[in-house]
Amino acid sequence: MTNTRKNEQNDESPDDVRNTPSPMQVLRDARAQLAEFTGMTAESVSSFERTPEGWELEIEVLEVARVPDTMSLLASYRVSLDPQGVLTAYRRIRRYERGRSEPHKAGGR
């Protein structure tokens, strides 16, 4: 099978494939970009998904450091990136103390 035929079967051109970052690079870049925009430390990624529009992530961020550390305030941010991994939008979706868990919802996620 020639490269031309492969490209016809695969909707991505060779240039698209070369310009698409790896999932690990997207994770690293998303954390760095969110930290740069907000000035807060991105601690972890709790959700990661590739979408037709690019990438969607939920990133946990340290908003207020307290002593003891279990009383620090964290927040979850929903972050959207384009297919190349450039941050296009972010929004805080919840805020919580590090030592507290969410109440379990019957039938929920």
Summarize the entry for a quick read.
With 109 residues, this protein is an alpha+beta fold.
Structure description:
With 109 residues, the protein is of the alpha+beta class. Helices cover 27% and strands 39% of the residues. The chain has helices spanning 3-9, 14-19, 23-38; strands at 41-51, 54-64, 73-81, 87-97. 14% of the residues are buried. Mean pLDDT is 83; it is low at 1-15.
What would you call the shape? elongated
How many distinct helices?
A: 3
Determine the strand fraction and express it as a percent band.
35-45%
The largest β sheet comes out as: 4 strands, antiparallel
Structural class: alpha+beta
Oligomer: single chain
Low-confidence stretches at least 5 residues in length (pLDDT < 50)? 1-15
Mean pLDDT: 83
What features would you highlight for this structure?
3 helices, disordered N terminus, 4 strands, 27% helix, 109 residues, 4-stranded antiparallel β-sheet, single chain, alpha+beta
Q: How would the blueprint of this fold be written?
A:
Blueprint: H1 3-9, H2 14-19, H3 23-38, E1 41-51, E2 54-64, E3 73-81, E4 87-97
Antiparallel strand pairs: 1-2, 2-3, 3-4
